[in-house]
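Record No apical meristem-associated C-terminal domain-containing protein, 148 aa.
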Amino acid sequence: MTNTGMKLLLSTIVPPPQNRERLVKQVKDRFGRIKKRVAWFCGSYKEASALYASGESDADLKKRAMQTYEADHPEDGPFMFEHCWVVLKEKPKWDAYLERLEYVEPDKRKFSVDDEVGQRFTLDDDKEERPPGGKTAKGNEKQRTKVV
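=>
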């Protein structure tokens, strides 16, 4: 999401006080906190939907996800970002982010703790290995034929 996209999202969620402009760092830090908790709730919602019972409404499913979230994260209290989750769950970029998050090993997630910001992690260290290029593949093929 771009900086302007984050500003737009956060301005619709939490409008800033009159005559006050937020710094880009403030917006990024706030979105980092929101992103972390919404990702946790998505995990709880996925877990609750895996246990879907016949005749259960979406409200019941969300209620069970809320209970799971509160049980998993008691220090955070109830889930406060439902309005953010409603917006983000429809975005393809958010789905891609959650998929990347599933495949990253917990050891590779970097946590940085700032007094004002709290904990957040980045997925930048998870670099996908690229396949060899055309010239490299041809060179490897020639070497294999010479050896045999």
